[in-house]
């Protein structure tokens, strides 16, 4: 093991990966999140997704699993803060309009 460590200490992770893969050794180096966000094939494979929020496009990790006959992916855009509050109060908690009116400030309702 010390020989391998000595060999790798003299090279960058990228150099080790390139050399070993050139010899048909199945391997991959650990990448930082920033490095992974720059990998176009991760977008192509669906490992990363681009969603829209108020600041523009944002690349995020997708679910690490696939399910047969099920779509498992984030929404294509991120709701604004409070955008879904009335809907959640109604559909999840069963609140009626009067209850929602008491919970959601008037200025928040006018933004929708």
Share of residues in helices: 40-55%
The CA-CA distance between the termini, in Å, is: 62 Å
Radius of gyration, in Å, reads 23 Å
Low-confidence stretches: none
Instruction: Encode the helix/strand succession as letters.
Output: HHHHEEHHH
Q: What count of helical segments does DSSP give?
A: 7
> What is the strand arrangement across the widest sheet?
1-2
Which structural category fits the helices and strands? alpha+beta
The coarse silhouette is elongated
**Biggest beta-sheet profile:** 2 strands, antiparallel
- Mean pLDDT, to the nearest integer, reads 84
The oligomeric status of these chains comes to single chain
- Percent of residues in beta strands? 5-15%
Q: Care to count the β-strands?
A: 2
Q: What structural keywords apply?
A:
3 domains; alpha+beta; single chain
Describe this structure as you would to a colleague.
The chain is an alpha+beta fold. It folds into three domains: 1-30, no CATH class; 31-78, no CATH class; 79-112, no CATH class. The protein has helices spanning 2-9, 13-22, 33-37, 40-44, 85-91, 97-103, 106-110; strands at residues 48-53, 56-61. Strands 1-2 form a two-stranded antiparallel ribbon. The N and C termini lie far apart (62 Å). The model has no long low-confidence stretch (mean pLDDT 84).
What order do the helices and strands come in, and which of them pair?
Elements: H1 2-9, H2 13-22, H3 33-37, H4 40-44, E1 48-53, E2 56-61, H5 85-91, H6 97-103, H7 106-110
Antiparallel strand pairs: 1-2
